[in-house]
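User: Could you check the structure of this?
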Amino acid sequence: MGQLAGKTAVVTGGTTGIGLAAARRLAEEGAHVFVTGRREAELDAAVKEIGADATGVQGDVSDLADLDRLYRVVAERGRPVDVLFANAGGGSFATLEQVTEEHFDETFAINVKGLLFTVQKALPLLADGASIILTSSTTATTGVEAFGVYAASKAAVRSFARTWANELRGRGIRVNAITPGPIDTPGITGLAADEEQAHQLRGSLASQVPLGRMGHPDEVANAVLFLATPASSFTTGSNLYVDGGANQV
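Assistant: Sure, the predicted structure tokens are below.
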């Protein structure tokens, strides 16, 4: 029997990287996991990888109609949601001079608006005592050049964790942020123009980490599991860094 046997989890942005690793880890511990993603082929592959305890629901968290459809599918199973990992997010480089309205709107639509309504629309389905986990980023506090809009969106996520932990305490619902540092995911490659630049970026990021390397998605997934289970029963409103010491040393 796993730590989450009989439980239900929802993981947004669960088709690659941290989201996929977390969804797989939650399923390994016995949870039935509902996974979302925007691209059908990647979603199907993720569900196949996770196994029989996964249900894929295609959708974009910035589209409120897609979120409504997600939770209709979840509700049809007839079980409350015990773990919500609001992980979907993204960003791209742009200096202050380069930021456009489109760049700002796209980043905040996914990372802030999408995350907020992912949690709000889950409230009627959440079990008392459920765990909500939000994905922030070390960039929220580091001032990385040309990453200001993304960083600001992730700072908002950290703020949400504090406020919602206070607002939902009456139901015993815990809300925490998880803050990965440099993690080797497909998203890193997406920030670079080509594979050579991606290689250079990985090397630069690893050099900033006291442990001397980038993290692996499974290492973040293990931290998500901790926040999802009673092992973290006295932890709420917190910000759990999984960054190899990058923001700590």
